[in-house]
Amino acid sequence: MIETEKILKKHNLRLTDGRRSILDIFLNNPVALSHASIEEKLPNFDRVTIYRTLYSFVENGILHKVLDDGMASKFALCHTCHDHKHTHQHVHFKCEICLDTTCLEKTRIPSFVMPDGFLAHEIGLLVQGICPKCSQKN
Ligand SMILES: [Zn+2]
Ligand SMILES: [Zn+2]
Ligand SMILES: [Zn+2]
Q1: CATH number for the domain formed by residue range(s) 3-135
Q2: Ligand closest to CA 61
Q3: What pLDDT digit, counting tens, does each position of 58-104 carry?
Q4: In what order do the strands lie in the sheet with 101-108?
Q5: CA of 60 relative to ligand 1 center, distance in Å
């Protein structure tokens, strides 16, 4: 069975053209992707289908939203999530040169002490700088 089918099956999602195509893009790209860049790669699908598919993947623990300094959110593959529970607390890195955002799976977000009355549900940490690929060019 191909990887895409395996992932959809594991998360109890039916295989559709849209789901397969979108998931394939993520499996072939090691970086976080925005809605717009997925639209560009899939001109045959309308924006609503892409939007719904992305959000159903987030709900099912296949993708997670990635904090970005731009206007649009980006999405990246989850490797250890099950169903509705996203268990990762990793740092994201955005390169100032190529603008790629990467999951640093092994770099954990430190824990914070929240002031009284503030209940944290989600913590996103974006580090900006120069990625290894771009620093080699100089
Ligand atoms: Zn996740
Ligand atoms: Zn870079
Ligand atoms: Zn990530």
Answers
A1: 1.10.10.10
A2: 1
A3: 999 999 999 887 778 899 999 878 766 788 889 999 999 999 999 99
A4: 101-108, 90-95, 126-129
A5: 9
Q: What is the dihedral of CA 77, 83, 88, 89, to 10 degrees?
A: 110
Residue list, CB under 5 A from ion ligand 1? 64, 78, 81, 86
Residue ranges of domains in the chain? 3-135
- Give the Å distance between the CA of 76 and the centre of ligand 3: 6
99 alpha carbon – ligand 2 mean position (Å): 6
| pLDDT of res. 121 | 81
- For CA atoms 42, 47, 53, 57, the dihedral sign is positive
Q: Which ligand is nearest to the CA of 32?
A: 3
What is the pLDDT at residue 1?
Answer: 66
Q: What's the mean pLDDT in 32-52?
A: 95
Query: Residues whose CB is under 5 A from ligand 3 (ion)?
Result: 76, 103
